[in-house]
Specification:
Elements (H helix, E strand, L loop, with lengths): L9 E5 L2 H4 L21 H7 L22 H15 L3 E5 L2 H4 L10 H16 L3 E7 L5 H7 L6 H17 L5 E5 L9 H4 L11 H25 L4 E7 L3 E3 L4 H24 L5 H8 L10 H7 L4 E5 L4 E3 L33 H15 L3 E5 L17 H19 L4 E7 L19 E3 L11 E3 L1 H11 L6
Parallel strand pairs: 1-2, 1-10, 2-3, 3-4, 4-5, 5-7, 6-8, 7-9, 9-10
Antiparallel strand pairs: 11-12
Helix pairs in contact: 3-5, 7-9, 9-12, 13-14
Protein name: 6-phospho-beta-glucosidase
Organism: Weizmannia acidilactici
Family: Belongs to the glycosyl hydrolase 1 family.
Length: 477
């Protein structure tokens, strides 16, 4: 049965600057982390294993983020396509190093600010609300090399300066903000979110959680500044959410799944939504010998800088048992867990669990009682251009339909849901593998893993399907 989504529901799509803009040295932009991450499946090894040096090696690797899909020069064409689908919202990020090329300057780069002015103006021309992530895996490389990323307390000041510059510049153009993309992902991939590579596995805990504390303080300062500068704006946190199932009803596995879920799904959200460290982290810090350095007033800042809503990405659930063997783990389970015998998986091994999205929405709303926003969800797949030029991506339509149906069920359950921006509404560079062949979009971009392609945009079958979904406010699926 079709579900009525609320009036004003923010239907749209989601992207990140580093995955679609390209123009990596234009407009005064400085280098950032994605600019030095290699393309291909080697990327996942680089971002999850110790020892990365943050250097470009053109002889050894390719760097697809450098050109990406050239949104920097083609944004008008792309936004017109989003408007044709009927987008109410477009989730995007601002590249920190376009605004402060090194990250520690005192004066922002006018060319970078002006570029986003043009993008926002183009969106408003079509009545599309920008939903802006302030930091989406895009830390300026200078802050990584000179300061060690978020381990250094001074980065809090740099981030506050950056966020405040955005609020002051775009206060009349942007009403929806998020501080850090998938902030909890740093527990698995610190390079992307925390701005440093683990050099020795035994050193993982202390620097990781010290960096988190700095991010929490920075997020709170940004929230406070946003509320002051743009009183009618909403600013949220953004997490990866993976509901965690116990493999069976063995109480040991149930307890293990609970502990894994609390650390990954709730630790960051609790600090940013409730404004305090959750009680369960006290034991975790003690058992891992973590001693957080705090400045006077930090805990008060966290309490004052609570977010207005929770945004999250949902791609898969996670199944856990205490004593798992290597053969139990699915190839796509980059966030841990074991194979769920009841679920099918995508071509990249990501398990497909639409009901898990309803579970997620209910769990998050029960816990926080603030509005929720699904800002990433989608299917990465190989798409084929047929002889007649069409792309028949029924598999993507089936995936999205089943997830949107479960969102409707969650709304019926009483969940307050602001909107839905599916991931990669136009094909872009994959964050985890640096591939173009892992496509999510309603719009096909003629760009390939070897760097070839014309960058021509084509509408897939899902383009027309999603247009109908939006036009009927989710009734026609």
């Amino acid at each position: 049965m079709a579900k009525r989504f609320p009036e004003g529901f923010l239907w749209g799509g989601a992207t990140a600057a580093n995955q679609l803009e390209g123009a990596y040295r234009e407009g005064g932009k400085g280098l950032n982390i994605p600019d030095v991450l290699p393309g291909g499946k080697v990327r996942l090894k680089v971002i999850t294993e110790p020892g990365f040096n943050f250097e470009i090696d053109n002889e050894k690797y390719t760097y697809p983020n450098h050109e990406a899909i050239d949104f920097y020069h083609r944004y008008k064409e792309d936004i017109a396509l989003f408007a044709e689908m009927g987008f109410k919202a477009f989730r995007m990020s601002i590249a920190w190093s376009r605004i402060f090329p090194n990250g520690d300057e005192t004066v922002p780069n006018e060319e970078g600010l002006a570029f986003y002015d043009r993008v926002f103006d183009e969106l408003h021309k079509y009545g599309i609300e920008p939903v802006v992530t302030i930091s989406h895996y895009e830390m300026p490389l200078h802050l990584v090399k000179e300061y060690g990323g978020w381990r250094d307390r001074r980065v809090v000041e740099f981030f506050e300066r950056y966020a405040t510059a955005l609020f002051n510049r775009y206060k009349d153009k942007v009403k929806y903000w998020m501080t850090f993309n998938e902030i909890n992902s740093g527990l698995h991939m610190p390079i992307m979110g925390l701005g440093f590579a683990i050099q020795e596995e035994r050193d993982r805990y202390q620097p990781t959680f010290q960096a988190y504390h700095h991010q929490f303080v920075a997020s709170a300062k940004a929230v406070i500044a946003c509320h002051k500068i743009i009183p009618d704006a909403k600013i949220g946190c953004m997490i990866v959410y993976t509901p965690t199932y116990a493999f069976d009803c063995n109480p040991e596995n149930v307890m293990y799944a609970l502990q894994e879920e609390r650390l990954f799904n709730y630790f960051c959200g609790d600090v940013q939504v409730r404004g305090a460290y959750p009680a369960f982290m006290k034991r975790y810090f003690k058992e891992h010998n973590i001693q957080l350095e705090m400045e006077p007033g930090d805990l008060e800042l966290l309490k004052e800088g609570k977010v207005d809503y929770v945004a999250f990405s949902y791609y898969m659930s996670r199944t856990e048992k205490k004593d798992k063997k290597p053969e139990d783990v699915g190839e796509g389970n980059i966030l841990g867990g074991i194979k769920n015998p009841f679920l099918k998986a995508s071509e990249w091994g990501w398990e497909i669990d639409p009901i898990g999205l309803r579970v997620s929405l209910n769990q998050l709303y029960d816990r926080y009682q603030v509005p929720l926003f699904v800002v990433e969800n989608g299917l990465g797949a190989y798409d084929k251009v047929e002889e007649d030029g069409s792309i028949q991506d029924d598999y993507r339509i089936d995936y999205l339909r089943s997830h949107i149906q479960e969102m409707g069920e969650a709304i019926e359950d009483g969940v307050e849901l602001m909107g839905y921006t599916s991931w990669g509404c136009i094909d872009l560079v994959s964050a985890s593998t640096g591939e173009m062949s892992k496509r999510y979009g309603y719009i096909y971009v003629d760009k390939h893993d070897d760097g070839s392609g014309t960058l021509e945009r084509k509408k897939k079958k899902s383009f027309y399907w999603y247009k109908d979904v939006i036009a009927t406010n989710g009734e026609k699926l």
